[in-house]
Structure formats: structure tokens, C-alpha cells
Amino acid sequence: MRGLRQCLPLALLAATSLAAAPAAHAQTQGAPLRIHVRGSAQIEAVAWTEPDGFVVRGSVVDDARSAIAEAPLSIDALTSAGAPAVLPAVDGCAADGAARAREPRPSQGGYVIATDERGGFCLRGRAPLADATLRIRFAGGKLYDAAEAKIPIEAHAAPLAPVILRFDPPVDAIDLDRPTVNVAVALRLDRSGARGFASGAPFERDRLPVVLEDERGARLAEAPTGGDGRARFELPTERLDGAGQGVLRARFDGTATLAKASVSQGVVRYAQVTLDLSHPVEPARAEDGVSIDVEVRSSRGPVEGGVVEALRAGEPVGAATVSGGKARVIAAFTAERAGTVPISLRYVPASPWWIPGAELAIDVPVAGPGAWRQIALGAAVLVIAGWVLGGWRRAPKRAATARAGDERPVAPPGRAGVRVMGPLEGATGWRGAVADAHDGTPIARAELVIVVPAFDGSGVIARALTDDVGEFSIEAPYRSDARLVVRAPMHSSHEQALPSPSKLGIALVTRRRAVLDRLVRWARRQGAPFEGPPEPTPGHVRRAASRVQQREVELWASRIEHAAFGPDPVDERIEQDLGASEPKPGASPLAP
Q: What are the boundaries of the signal sequence (predicted)?
């Protein structure tokens, strides 16, 4: 679970991360690229006839199964031949749990109605409508794509009582490494719309069949409800699809007196990743790189995506992407003599459903330097000694500065920071590169500023911008009290003590990731019900806050959700405002 918590924010920003590289390329070409991130919408509804009319009830949810409130819906009807059908006048009826009914209005041969605060809608026709199909359309908007559903109207001789299904408790995550997962679905009568049932009339809730399906429509299990109206499933995980995002759908097909009902729940199916060697490592010279072939698997077979990283004494010495459950890591390091060197291999996931297992510790055999290499090293020692002895006879010469791109790449660190990559002998400044902390994309036009304490003025003693490939060079006298500040338009600023003149690798975190990280840290400090499995997300925190009536937390989580996944960029002002409005511990509940 700890691994899932570390990497789930990556999934929440998948669209932004995947678009980062094209955006950087467009900037290098001088053409800015606007990135739009929108969620999908889904319409779920049922419709049936009654002796004196018809009823249609449903809801609109997003891809995280959260309600889309105030969504305008247009509804018309088609005959079995596909021609437009004439619709009678309708009235609004209260949807599941709604405080009041939303009234529809006529529009172009149909109706227009907005969903309530829970994303629900309900219409009751004043005359029967047989042999027709209702077409319900949502036009979408800035945050959601358009959606459409065609709902057939089923004929019944008597009025049907609306039924509500709920996953109780909700199932957010499924561990595929466990043999089974327990799922409970509660079925109850919606008495607010049950015209055929008296308010206090008994309702037999047992022995009603409930079917469980997945996002493929595959039938997973069927179970009857008990006396408490709950259908309980002990679902074998082997029936589920592999690791990834999915949906559980509970379906009740109705009876002669009860209407059909269904409910869907978005889930993340996750599995632990294990590493093993494909074959023993062949000896090689460490400086030339040792080839390590790794098998990357889970309980569901080969793993796709992510990175296998090799570390020596905690420092990265090589990395390779995973494809088809395999990775070939070239580990390059220095070794003075032949023998074995301990290396650790770890899996760095690119998706939240892969949970890193334990690191794989191996002993890598390395060969000593060859004869010609030893001769070359000896000659180099003699040359250096001669240079040192004769240095007093010539003026000091400034060392040539190599470009930061000449350094061997290392795996992205996953957090903001400044890493000293090596010394710059005789230098009075710094050089290096600025890149994204998660995907390693170079950050162009990032600003680096060296500041020192000052009684008046800014205290800035040097300033530089990165070029189109994220590289920089900055010159200034070194001071132990100086600080380095790094800023970029789409990334959070980073500030720390200035290291001595050296080669630097600087990593920045996008503002979208930063606001999500803030929410995750806040939820973990609060604990239940905000932390939640497998990882606190804006949607989870928002729903939890709604249940415990903490309006301040609900609004804050909604703002972070819009900032992280909305179409508008997150600038420094928005990031600071979200930080300043973070709810204080123990925020008091507010009445709805």
C-alpha cells in the first residue's frame, strides 16, 4: 500500500505528464501549445411505462464515478423505426435522495432538465409512451466530454417502485494478489418516487437477485439479497481483468413491482511487482557498463511500463524502461580491481496500479582494467604529475566548460531539488540543466537567481535563464550565505542553500503535481475518513468531506481537483492561494 500511495498522484496527472514532452518541443519551436484536460461523462438511466404515464430516472457521473451536478440534459424520443416520437407533457420528480424535484422545460420536440446536486434527474410523463426509446444527451463543457444514452421504455401493467442500489461500503481498490475480494451491494426502495407503495408499507428485500459485472460487461457473479437488503459477494480476483483502472457494476433487473436499477463504482486493480534476473550477469569492465537483464512480473504476468533502476550504495548507476516484462539495465561505475560489486535493483512504476516490491540485491562480477587501460592510466598519472611540477612556470588556465548535456543521464528523482553532479575545477560559477522531476523533460526558460542577505534592495547578485534544452551557466563569487532560487512558469519554485561552484542537476515539480501533493499530505495528517485506500485523491477527499458535512474541506478539495485536471494552467498565484486556503486541523462540520 505504501508504494501505491507514493505513485498514485502520477496517475492523477497522466494526461498532463504525457503532454509535457510535446509541449516542451513546441516551445523550442517557438509555437506555444495549449493542453486541454477533460474528463468523460456517463449517463445511467432506466425508463418504464405506467397505466397513466411513464417514468425515466437516472444520473450523470464522471470517469471517477463522481456526480456531475447542474448538468443540462436534452431528452427526446424515437420510435422503433427511428423516427421522432411525440412526447407528452411531463412533470419533475425527486431523484435518488434529492431534496426537491427539478422541473423540466420543453425544447425542440423534447425536454431539457438539469441534474440535481447529486447528479440525478427524474421525469414523469402525464400520458403513456409505448414502443419508444428515449435519447438522453449531455453536451459536455470545459471539464467534461459530451455523452449520450438511448434508454428503451419498458411496458408494465402496474406502477413500478423505484429501487436504489449502493456499494456499501464503496470499493475503491482491489488487490489482485489476494484470492478474493468482498463486495456488498445494498438494495432499498426509493419511497420518494414509489407511488404504488404506501409510506409505511412493508417491503420484502430478501431473495432479490443482484448481478455483478465489470467494465467489459463480463458477468462476474450473482447473489440474492438477504433480509437486510444486501447482496454479498466473495468475488474471486482471478475473474477480474488485469491491473489498471476499471469499473464494478451492480445490476438489478427488476420484478413485476420493482423497477430496474444499476450502480457503477470506479476501481483501481493493483498488483505487486517482483524483479528477478533473466540469467546470471556476465563479467564486464565496470567503466564500460555491465549489462543486467531483468524479468519484471506480477501475479498477472509480465509488467508493461515503468523503469528498473540500478543503485550502488544508494546512488543511481543505470536505468532502463520496462517493455513486455523485460528490462536491460546498463550499470556503469568505477571499480579499481576485479571482483564482485553489490548492486540493488528497484522498480519505479509509471502507473499507480503497479506496487513496487522489495529491491533485488545482486552481486555483479566486474573485470579489472585491461593491460592497455593500465598503461593509459599510468601515462595519465605521469602527465598529471608533469603538469603539477611545471605549473609554476605558466599562468593559470581556466578549465574548459563542457555542456550539461554531455553528462550521463540519471533517472528523474521524483521530487524537487538540486543535485551536485561533479566539481568544476578552478571555476567561479555553476553550470548544469533543469528538468522535470518526474519525467526528466528539459525545462526551457527557467530562471536561476543567486541571492544574498541584504538590508535594502533585492540581494540578487546573479541571474540566468536556461536555453531551449534546459541548460544554463551562471557566474558569481561564491558566498556561504547565498541561496539559489529556481523558477519556471509551469513548475513550483525551489530554493535552497547555494552549493560551491560545481555541475548541477536541478529538478522541479509541476504546479499541478504540487497542489495534489499538498492535498495528499493534508489527508494523511487528518487520517480517516480522508486518507482512504489506496491513496487520497481530490475526489475521495471531496466525497468524504460531504459525508461528514465539512463544507470548507469539500470546497478546497474541489478547487484542487479543478486546478489539477482543469483546462487552465496553474500559475504561482493559484498555487499560493490553494496553499493559503488549506483547511486547518479539526475544521468544524457545517450544516448542509
A: 1-26
Q: Rounded to an integer, what distance in angstroms lies between the CA atom of residue 9 and that of residue 541? A: 14
Q: 228 in helix, strand or coil? A: coil
Q: Residue 174 has what DSSP assignment?
A: E
- Helix (H), strand (E), coil (C) string for 480-524: CCCEEEEEECCEEEEEEECCCCEEEEEEECEHHHHHHHHHHHHHH
Q: How many whole angstroms separate alpha carbon 159 and alpha carbon 156?
A: 7
DSSP 87-147: P--EEE---TT-SSPPPPEEETTEEEEE--TTSEEEEEESS---SEEEEEEE---SSB--E
Cα 479 from chain centre = 41
Cα dihedral 153→206→187→238 (10° resolution): -100
* Structure-block grid coordinates of residue 350: 509509471
pTM over 0.70: no
- What is the Cα–Cα distance from 424 to 430, expressed in whole angstroms? 8
Mean pLDDT split into 10-residue runs, the chain, 592 residues:
40 38 40 54 83 84 78 89 85 70 83 87 84 88 86 75 86 91 90 51 78 91 92 94 90 86 87 95 87 95 92 88 93 84 92 91 82 54 48 36 43 80 77 90 93 78 92 89 92 91 91 89 84 74 83 90 84 90 66 36
The residue among 30, 58, 32, 64 whose CA lies nearest residue 46 is: 58
CA 173 to CA 399: how far, in whole Å?
Answer: 56
Q: Give yes or no for a contact between 232 and 205, defined as CB atoms under 8 angstroms apart.
A: no
Distance CA 570, CA 575 (A): 7
Rounded-to-integer distance, Cα 433 and Cα 542, Å: 38
Alpha-carbon gap, residue 292 to 339, rounded angstroms? 16
The Cβ of residue 183 has, within 10 Å, a number of other Cβ atoms equal to 23
Measured distance CA(391)–CA(362) in Å, rounded: 45
> What is the DSSP-derived secondary structure letter of residue 358?
-
Q: How far is the C-alpha of 442 from the C-alpha of 422, rounded, in Å?
A: 19
Integer-rounded Cα radius of gyration of the chain: 31
Q: Is-contact 243 300, C-beta < 8 A?
A: yes
Residue 208 in contact with residue 252, Cβ under 8 Å? yes
Query: CA–CA separation, 281 vs 345, rounded Å?
Result: 13
> Cα(219)–Cα(253) distance, rounded to whole angstroms?
14
| Positive or negative torsion for Cα 316, 319, 322, 325 | negative
Cα 167 from Cα 141, distance rounded (Å): 29
